[in-house]
Amino acid sequence: MEKYEEISKQLIDEMGGLDNVQSVARCYTRLRLRIKDDSKVQLDKISTLDGVVQATSAQGKLQVVMPEYLDKVYNYMSEQMGGSSNAAASIEPTTKEPWTPKRVLNSILDAISNSLTPMIGGLAMTGLFLALLNLLTVTHVITQGSQTYVLLHMMGNSLFYFMPFMVAYGASRYFKANPILSLILAGMLMSPEFTKMVAAGGSIHLFGLPVAALNYETTLVPILVTVWVQSMVEKLFDRPFFNKFGLVKNFPVLLIMGPLALLVTAPIGETLASYIANGALWIYNQAPVVGITALSLLIPFFIITGSHWVFFPVAFASLKSLGYDPFLWVTFAVWNFAELGMTLAILLRAKKRSTRSLAASSAFSIAASGITEPAVYGLMLKMKKPIIPSVIASGIGGLFFSLMHVKVFSLVTVSLLSLPQFIDPKGGNNFVAALIGALITVVAGFVLNYFWKFDESMFEDNDSEPIAEETVNK
User: Fold this and answer.
1) Which of 13, 298, 375, 461 lies in disulfide reach of 362, CB 3.0 to 4.6 Å?
2) What pLDDT score does 473 carry?
3) Which of 84, 88, 90, 72 is nearest to 8 (CA)?
C-alpha cells in the first residue's frame, strides 16, 4: 500500500467516514472538506497523521494542511467519492439549514474558492511569467511593442484573457453542472463575433431585447453567476423523459441558458463585480493609508479561515480596469513578508532541531513560492505567541506600502522570486518602493518575533544543543 493511501484511509476514518463528507476541494496546501457532523471528526488524531501540519474544524468546514501528500490524498478521496473533485455520497446535507446571511456568505465564499481552485497553479505560473516579462522590458532586454514582446505577453496573458473558460470549468465542478455546456456558455461570452460587436460601440439586440455591450475577457463573476443558474436549470430537466435523448438531453438547457447568459446572468455578474471593485477603489481613494493598513492587519485572519478568496474577484477587476491592483494584493504581499520574517526569527532562536527544521522549510516555501500555510499552521498557530508580532509586522508593512502608493501589476503569489510583479511597465519607482517595503516588513517580522519570546514545548524533539554544534550532511 502506498503511503498516501494509508494516510487517506486514516483521514477518512478520523473524520467519520465518507458518509460524513459533503464535498472535498483543495487549494495550495490545504485539503478543504465540508462535513455534515462535526462531532464525528477526531481533530486531534487527524493532526497527528503523517504529513499533516495542522487541522482545523468549525461549522462544518474541515481544513487539513498537508502540502507533502496533498495532491495524491486529494485525488484518492475524489476517486473514492465518485471520481469528481466535489463528489460526495450525498450532495445535500442530511439536515436542511435555513438560509441565513451567514449561510449565504459561506456559500459565496465556497463558490469562489472552489471555482478558482483548478486554476491556482496556472495563475501562479502565468503571473510569474508576466512579472519576468516586465523585468525584461524595463531592463531593455526586450523592446515593448516588438513581435517578441507581443508573443511572450500573449503566452503569459492567455489565462487571464480566457479566464471565463477557467472559471466555467471550476464552477461546473462545484455546482455539479455539465462542464461542456459551461464551457460553451463561456465561449459565447468570449466569441470574436460578440467582442467585435462590443468594440463597434453600437447597440446590440437579441430578438429585439437589449444585450449589454460588455467585454467579458479577464472576468470572473459573470461566468460564475451564469454557471450557478445553469446548474439550477439543469435540475429542472433532470427527468427520465429527457434522459432518453442521450447526448442532447441538455439541449433545452442550452436553449434557455444561451440567451439568458447574454441578457441577464453575465451582465448581472459584471455589474456585481463592478460595484465591488468600485467600492474597494473608493475606499482606497478616500483613505488609502487607513484602508490598506487596516486590511493588512486583518488579512491574516481571512487567510487563516480560508475566506480571503472573496477578494480575488476585486483584484482581477482592478487589474482589468486599471492595469494594476493598488489595494488588495498589496495586503497579501505584506503578510507573506511578515511571515517570512517570523520564520527566520524562529529559525535562529529556536533550540529544538525539529522546530528549526520546520522553520527552515517554511521560510523556503514563502521565499520561493509565496506559500505561507506551513508557517501559519505549523508554527504561528501551533505556538500562538508569534500571532501578535506577525500581525503587527503585517500592519507596519501595509502602512509603508500605502504611504508609498505601491501597486501590483501581475497577480501572482507573492514571493522573493515573483518580486518583478511590482515593476511598472511604464517605469517609475514602484519596484524600488516595493523592495524597500518588503525589506521593512521582513525585518519587522523578524525583530518582533525574535524578541517576543515563543514557546516550542509542543514540538516533540528535545534536542537543544546550540545551532553552531549541529552537523549538516551535505
Assistant:
1) 375
2) 40
3) 72
Backbone angles phi, psi at 144, to 5 degrees: -65, 130
Angle between helices 288-305 and 387-403 (to 10 degrees): 140
Instruction: For Cα atoms 92, 93, 97, give the angle at the middle one, nearest 5 degrees.
Output: 110
| pLDDT score at 84 | 46
Domains, the chain, in order of start with CATH, read: 3-97 (3.30.1360.60), 162-272 (no CATH), 282-459 (no CATH)
Model pLDDT, residue 305: 67
pLDDT reported for residue 193:
92
Q: 459 near 352, Cβ under 8 Å?
A: yes
CA distance linking residue 227 with residue 271, whole number of Å: 16
The span from the CA of 104 to the CA of 98, in Å, is: 10
User: What does the block give as the cell for 135?
Assistant: 523585468
Q: Which portions of the chain are predicted below pLDDT 70?
A: 1, 27-28, 82-100, 102-103, 105-106, 109, 124, 244-247, 305-307, 309-310, 460-474
In the chain the first and final C-alpha atoms are separated, in Å, by 31
> Cβ(89)–Cβ(21) under 8 Å?
yes
Question: Which DSSP letter does residue 55 get?
Answer: E
Q: What is the DSSP string of 99-162?
A: --HHHHHHHHHHHHHHHHGGGHHHHHHHHHHHHHHHHHHHTTSS-TTSHHHHHHHHHHHHHHHT
Cβ contact 186:168 at 8 Å: yes
